[in-house]
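Example record

The entry below shows one chain as it appears in the dataset: sequence first, then structure tokens.
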Amino acid sequence: MQKNIWVIILIFCAAVFSEVAAQNSFEDFKKKAESNFNSFKVSKEKEFEDFRKKANEDYAALMKKAWKEFERLRGVPRPKEDKPIPPILYPEEDKNKPIKDNPKPFDEIIPVVKPDPQPQPIAPIEDKPTPVDVYFAFRFFGTDLKVRLEDNHRFKLQDCKEKNVAKAWEMMSSGRYDNVITDCLAIRSRNHLCDWAYLLMLRDLSSAFFEGHGNESTLLTAFLYCQSGYKMRLGSSGNRLYLLYASKHLIYDKSYWLVDGEKYYPLDCDLKQLYICGATYPKEKSLSLQVGTDQLFAMRSSEKRVLQSRRFPSMKIAVETNSNLIDFFDTYPTSMINDDFGTRWCMYANTTLSQQARSSLYPALEKVLEGKSQVDAVNMLLNFVQTAFVYEYDDKVWGYDRAFFAEETLFYPYCDCEDRSILFSRLVRDLLGLKVVLIYYPGHLATAVRFSENVTGDYLSVNTSRYVICDPTYIGAPVGRTMPNMDNGNAKVILLE
């Protein structure tokens, strides 16, 4: 018995020693793995840094060469549309008539143009450790922002000669501004800034830092924009620098310079001729004018606006919007993609409402729509858009054709057919989860909804799916009615997300 106990003790001790040895072996392995990983990480970071350093050295070297003179080309005017078709009242005698199925033809389908991922630096940029982080604060559409900039980041350009601009670029690309770039990209991500908003943010930051729109401000904007992955060119005239940005969009009524077969638009310049630096940067990408998500600016509530449906008086809602967002939309350049003018409405319609607008509008609408069938709910939203807003022609209000984001239709006192259709498409998609298309007739824009229930009326067969006409400008008309005298033979269906 005693012998067996010693055997058990010996076995237990052997097991303990074995486990300790295994643990020591694991700890050694873990430390070695961590060491190897850290070495690999440092090696990769240096590799990225060297790659970016070489790219900037090459870029600065090309900057020193003579800039070529280019002449500005006249911008493409907005397409001239047929005379806008005014709102029409749905006839009283038709209100009790049954709505029968009636297929409608159309000319073509304009597909959704999905945005590419936003540009990124050619290589990951690591934060540079500093004893104390010093921040520079600035405002962007009422939003308080800050980045790691301090007084010693300011520089002075003696003039716009190629060698002096290149020398300043070399200084900025030495690593001193890496933390600024990472802070700017973090703001872009955190505030959901689209490319256009990001470019304006960089301009406002640089102007605030250098206290004006001087050459130093322009060069800092260009540097931050380029290092963030965007395609741009620098131009000069006399002793003044200008930033030109490339875009895959054709921007209406905006002059441009054609460089290497690509359009470059001026950020702040109305000159006819410029000397332009032809230096290119690796993996640079053109700016997109698609907005999509809510731009997260600080809240500045607009005055409450009461909107009410005539047919459904319970749909009486006090709506607020974000005035900072309205101010941003006022800067937005209208454009088209792939030379297809119908895509401009798609960009407006696929942009979401702000959180402020949604929180003031959607709960009240959800309450009155609760328990309704799809067709009843759409009829209520349709009448709300038809009758709660005042119609007016753009040329009388703005002096030119201007489409609204849905947010703007809630804010401004007047709207037209395209604005109503964009807002209606947003409401139906957000509140009911139904797919919607826009329908462009010469001189008019309407919508059609894809129901999952059986709904009769005028409809379009789009990619084997049935979309029933809903016209927010045919006042009082229910689902399934097309406004009189619409030219369906030339109608274009605009797909939405």
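Notes for this example: Residues 1-9 have pLDDT under 50 and may be disordered. The first strand starts at residue 68 and ends at 71.
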